[in-house]
Specification:
alpha/beta, Ubiquitin-like (UB roll), 3 domains
């Protein structure tokens, strides 16, 4: 036997042993796979499915521009009579496209002006119920004037409460918004402060109707029981669904709130603000997704605290009402990069105002930057949703942290959502 033949025999033997080893391994995995399938069938475990956000289908279904809606009902929702729900039906009587629970509607309102006539105002309000094909619901809080200041109450909220009646017609843009609950079966914590309950009601009602087995916790903070929205509805849902855990938090409880808690031993009533310590005490150790909506101070406290607690950034979702800019914690390298960005050398020119200003990244966005330097710009939602602050770009480029819900026209930008990428000249 030659050396070449011997080498071939050795190689063939090794290949045969390798084939036998791989065959045995494959056979064992095949047996394990069938055993797992049989076990899953015995336990009636559901198969894994791809989860879609649904945003693509809804974008196709939404209508362009504004559509006429008629107010079908008005319902006061709290003991203080400061929050009213408006049930809106399409004037053309065509079915309504669904929306993602947590999204909002944009309204174009003709509000009487102090000088006579009307003034067009654009405002956004969260949908407060699960999707229906015949009707949308929004719930609006009448915004009072700030204490100690001689200024009028909120114009659009006062307009809705005082002048929008059953039968009134409103111009409405299709549902939109990046803040919405996902369709997975992951356990979820909803945290609402004040009127921030509205998108949470939409998420909650949808979840309990479509995913009744999903674990849901709702922490709802107000000053006292007179400010609670739809309390009877929430308590009925908690009683009917074991997987729904309701927690009501009163920061300034009334005497009767304290008495009721002492007498009835309600374990879902807490006389304190919502904070991460309350969450630690109440929540089991699970991979929750957190959805938060409320005033800026609440978010400025909770979002960093959840991060410190170890909640991954991808599991913290929030929306603030009113002017706000909640900053997430940045990695060290990114933070250092931004810290050194004070001397960007970028110049922002406001053409109509005749001002040239060095860009300061700490301003947050171009709208806040303009206002900080005494430049008045029309604005509405301040979150890239209504388009009120759309401004022409004469020269230069801007960048968006995330795509706005409102699509600006070519050659324009939404000042509330962007920052300068280069030297930029704006028509403002």
């Amino acid at each position: 036997m030659t050396s070449l033949s011997l080498l071939l025999w050795i190689v063939s033997g090794i290949a045969l042993q390798l084939a036998i080893f791989l065959g045995i391994g494959f056979w064992r995995h095949w047996l394990d796979y069938h055993a797992l399938r049989s076990r899953a069938a015995e336990l009636d475990l559901p198969a894994m499915q791809n989860v879609s956000s649904g945003a693509e289908e809804l974008a196709v279904a939404a209508w362009p521009g504004f559509r006429t809606f008629r107010v079908d009902r008005k319902v006061i929702e709290d003991a203080a009579q400061s929050i009213c729900s408006f049930y809106l039906m399409p004037e053309d009587e065509q079915p309504l496209p669904p929306f993602l629970p947590g999204q909002f509607l944009t309204f174009r309102l003709d509000i009487p002006a102090a000088t006579g006539g009307t003034e067009q105002v654009v405002r956004c309000y969260s949908l407060s119920d699960a999707p229906r094909s015949d009707c949308y619901r929004i719930s609006i809080k009448r915004v009072p004037p700030p204490k100690g200041r001689q200024v009028p109450p909120g114009r659009s909220s006062a307009f809705f409460h005082e002048q929008v009646a059953v039968g009134s017609l409103l111009q409405v843009r299709a549902p939109a918004g990046h803040f919405h609950i996902d369709r997975s079966d992951a356990p979820v914590v909803l945290i609402a402060g004040g009127i921030g309950i509205t998108p949470m009601l939409s998420m909650l009602n949808w979840c309990l109707a479509e995913q009744p087995e999903r674990e849901i916790w709702l922490f709802y903070g107000v000053r006292n029981s007179r400010e609670l929205v739809m309390r009877a509805h929430l308590e009925a849902l908690a009683a009917a669904h074991p997987n729904f855990h309701l927690r009501l938090c009163f920061s300034d409880p009334l005497p009767e709130d304290v008495a009721r808690n002492d007498v009835t031993r309600h374990d879902y009533l807490h006389h304190r603000r919502i904070d991460v310590n309350l969450l630690r005490m109440q929540l089991p150790f699970k991979p929750f997704h957190f959805y938060i909506c409320g005033p800026t101070p609440m978010l400025e406290s909770l979002v960093p605290a959840l991060d410190d607690w170890g909640v991954p950034d991808a599991r913290i979702h929030f929306e603030a009402f009113g002017p706000s800019s909640i900053k997430r914690r940045q990695p060290t390298a990114v933070a250092a990069s931004q810290a050194g960005a004070a001397d960007t050398g970028i110049i922002v020119t406001f053409a109509k105002s005749g001002k040239q200003l060095p860009w300061q990244p700490t301003a947050g966005n171009l709208l806040a930057f303009a206002e900080a330097h005494g430049i008045t710009v029309d604005s509405g939602c301040r979150a890239g949703s209504c388009g009120s602050c759309q401004t022409t770009i004469r020269a230069g480029e801007v960048a968006y942290r995330q795509p706005p819900d409102y699509d600006p026209e070519p050659g324009t930008c939404l000042l509330c959502s962007c920052t300068p990428k280069t030297d930029v000249t704006l028509e403002a």
